[in-house]
Amino acid sequence: MSAPLLEVKDLHVYRGEAHVLQGVDLAVRPNRVTALLGRNGAGKTTTLLAVLGLLPGRGTVRFDGEDLLAERTPARVRRGIGYVPEDREVFTALTVEENLRLAARTPEAADRLDMVHELFPDLAARRKQRAGSLSGGQQQMVAIARALLNPNRLLLVDEPTKGLAPVVVRDVVAALEKVAEQTTVLLVEQNLRVAERLATDVVVLDHGTVVHRGDMAELFADTDRASALLGVSAATGPARGPSAGGRS
Amino acid sequence: MSTFVLIVVTSLGLAGLYFLLAAGLSLIFGLMNVLNLAHGAFFGIGGYAAWLTMDRLEVVSSLGLRFLVAVLVAAVVGLVVGALVERLLIARSYDNHLGQILLTIGLGFALVALLGGVFSYDAQPLVQPAWFGQTTELLGARIPNSRLLILAVAVVLLAALLLFLAKTRHGLVIRAGVENRSMVEALGIDVSRSFTLVFALGGLLAAVGGALGAVYFNGISPALGTTQLIFAFIVVVIGGLGSVTGTALSAVVVALTQQLINFYGAPGLGDIAVVGLLAAVLLLRPQGLLGAVAR
């Protein structure tokens, strides 16, 4: 088995008084999509923010064997980590073009812009439009496009389909499938059908600790186990269940 | 009619000073969440840099040319002082808001005391080109040329600042950082490098304001900038934190309100009206005229 691209060991994070992550251990293997699942408040988003350095953490976070915790966020990102945040967080006062120009930090970005426009033709047509005036789906495309402009080795993707219309979800999932062909992805996703379709590996969090890790298909084949871990009805089946939690 | 025109144009000159003092303050707070209570001292330092240049640079015999040099010297001094203050003092307290407030209050007092100690607390009259005291007729009103000059410089600097924000990579980072600093960092951009630049730009604008303020107020005294700082804060809040265009718009509204009511109402009433305007904006539109958008 190949060495993990991202390795998190005994990660503890506090948000105010709350001890949100209580010793998280997980590994993300290269060229795979790992889904990070769990109920509301389990610590999924907190894990991504701590990996990026947007929240302070204690423990070990290694990317390609290098310890990240002593580094500030920009230095971690420049190692090749892209981030698609929950709620998109596009710069609403900037145009689509400016959002992308801001994100472009490597010489390869100019060439990759064509690939981004091929993936999201709408963005090329709307490049002069303020991002704040875009629909939720279009903003999500901007958020994903920003992460794709640079040749990142790992993408942290936080609930990319949250609040999107089904037709837009289809486009976003199709784009992420193409992305996953070239990049390792750590995906937080509340839509289990989407998570099942995209991910090969799964890590399940509960109350700030990892309660399951393994193969995605195996977990979803065991509906009782999936129901117990993710809190969705076994009768419904996790693949059709609407949610496995929200921001935490 | 001519009196009204005179007051309006004079108010626009004052608006130019308010804008120069407030623009940096607004960007600094919008991007860095730092309330720089020492910003008024940058205004004073610029005023004294201009005063010294006008007083000592006798090698340049043309007073007009010497004033141009004086404004440039003030700009450079403001730029350097702003950068030094950020690097040496503010950078150590980014996560400590109370510390920042105490630090900048203390720095403001210390710089005023330093200026007072070096130059005395008496106002020093600025040597000015004769053209500044002459007037230009506009819609029947005789407008002092100095007011037109201040207005013109402020407009040029506003245009330059907007161009910088719109067309440069640094400007793009600042505009994005004002809106969402964490997300800019999550794109791999070290925003703290922009902090020094914004502080230096704020220092430059305030110092140029000080040089022009020495003309407007017929001299410079150590606390001149500090006394104007309260109006600059009002301009920033009304304009919207982080918004340069909002600051410019707000500076015009505040200066017109202040001067027109002072003249047509009663002296001092305009200052109270400005505070009333601030209260109204906070109640009805707390994000200010143009909100937190650096443009």
Automatic annotation (TrEMBL), chain A:
Residues 6-232 form the ABC transporter domain. PROSITE patterns: ABC_TRANSPORTER_1, ABC_TRANSPORTER_2. InterPro entries: AAA+_ATPase, ABC_transporter-like_ATP-bd, ABC_transporter-like_CS, BCAA_Transport_ATP-bd_LivF, P-loop_NTPase. One of its GO terms (molecular function) is ATP binding. Pfam families: ABC_tran. Keywords: Amino-acid transport, ATP-binding, Nucleotide-binding, Transport. PANTHER family: ABC TRANSPORTER ATP-BINDING PROTEIN, HIGH-AFFINITY BRANCHED-CHAIN AMINO ACID TRANSPORT ATP-BINDING PROTEIN LIVF. Belongs to the ABC transporter superfamily. This is ABC transporter ATP-binding protein. The lineage of its organism: Bacteria, Bacillati, Actinomycetota, Actinomycetes, Geodermatophilales.
Automatic annotation (TrEMBL), chain B:
Pfam families: BPD_transp_2. The chain crosses the membrane at residues 6-27, 34-53, 65-89, 101-121, 148-166, 195-217, 229-256, 263-284. Signal peptide: none annotated. InterPro entries: ABC_transp_permease (IPR001851), BCAA_transport_permease (IPR052157). It is found in: Cell membrane. It is a multi-pass membrane protein. Coiled coil: none annotated. It comes from the Bacteria. Keywords: Amino-acid transport, Cell membrane, Membrane, Transmembrane, Transmembrane helix, Transport. Belongs to the binding-protein-dependent transport system permease family. LivHM subfamily. This is Branched-chain amino acid ABC transporter permease. It comes from Blastococcus goldschmidtiae.
